Amino acid sequence: MKILVYISDFLSLIRHWHWQTNFYTNIAALLLLLLVTGAIQTQEVFVFIYIVHLYILYAGVFLVNNFADSEEDAHVGKENNFDVFPRAFTLPLMVVLVLLGFFISFLYDSRAIVFLTGVILFFALFYSLPPIRFKKRGFLGPLTSSVSQRLPFLFFYFLIPNSASVFWYLFGWLIITSFIIEIGFQLADSANDIQNRTQTYVIVIGVEKTVLVLKSLILFLFAYLAMAFFIGFPYVFLVSLILFLFSQGVLNDARCNIAHVGTQKN
User: Fold this and answer.
1) Going by C-beta distance under 8 Å and a sequence separation of 6 or more, which residues neighbour residue 188?
2) Is 27 helix (H, G, I), strand (E, B) or coil?
3) Of the candidates 146, 134, 225, 223, which has an alpha carbon nearest to the alpha carbon of residue 180?
4) pLDDT in tens, 146-199
5) Distance, CA of 61 to CA of 241 (rounded, Å)
6) Using CA atoms, how far apart are residues 63 and 53, in angstroms rounded to an integer?
7) What does each C-alpha distance from 29 to 203, 247, 254 come to in angstroms?
8) Residues 29, 173: contact at Cβ < 8 Å?
9) Quick one: angle between helices 140-150 and 164-188, nearest 10?
10) What residue ranges define each of the domains in the chain, with the CATH number in brackets?
11) Which residues are CB-neighbours of 243 under 8 A, at least 6 positions away?
12) What is the pLDDT of residue 262?
């Protein structure tokens, strides 16, 4: 069916498969926050706005990054779907999604969230866009990408009062898993980055050290999950179990990326 082909092409255009894990884990963390704080009844509207807003933010940012990477991807023969639709469609769509991503923030009725959205867009867009291009600036690459994809969760720090302990614990889990995801992506793409002379974090420190960093982050994630029992908040066992289950996808991807690099060496 043509409609399914169009949907698949559109998802490839916005790199949905690249950021879907961060999207789903952001929502999972929010639902756990609402469970522990009992704030679901007061936040129903904002939860709906947040899910739509988050998807538009990710779609807009990654569409821009897809555009910014298109020449380098073509140089190494890497698949890039930016031109799967006519540019007369994709370029205006790119602008509309980014603007929507910013202006939806006004619906939360919080100046802090509007400001935070601006910060998110700045770091996320300039991950790939010149002249800054954080992607080529060593550790700043995974730092800006990982943190900017998790900062939307901070919206609920301003919307739900008295949630500090569980909120920061969940935010910490989001940051750790995001670093694992991002460094894993850079590791899997290291051969292309070498050809393009792109100074990503992986290229700067080397593949072997990156594998060690990734394995250390995985061990730290397990320790972090166990730490919940020492913090002590409502539903701690359930929260830890759900976070552990959601971590499995992240860990499986990391193992696959490590194995992929090992295969390239052999």
Assistant:
1) 256, 257, 260, 261
2) helix
3) 146
4) 999 999 999 999 998 777 788 999 999 999 999 999 999 999 888 888 887 888
5) 31
6) 15
7) 32, 11, 20
8) yes
9) 140
10) 2-265 (1.10.600)
11) 28, 32, 170, 173, 225, 228
12) 63
What are the respective helix, strand and coil percentages of the chain, to the nearest 5? 85, 0, 15
pLDDT in tens, 53-75: 999 999 999 999 989 988 877 77
- Give dist(CA 261, CA 2) in Å, integer: 36
CA–CA separation, 210 and 22 (whole Å): 21
Q: What's the rounded Cα separation, in Å, for the pair 118 and 106? A: 11
pLDDT for 155: 96
Picking from 246, 233, 218, the residue whose alpha carbon sits closest to that of residue 24 is 246
Please state, in angstroms and rounded to a whole number, the distance separating the CA atoms of residues 96 and 73. 24
Instruction: With beta carbons less than 8 A apart as the criterion, state whether 46 and 113 touch.
Output: no
Tokens of 179: 């670093």
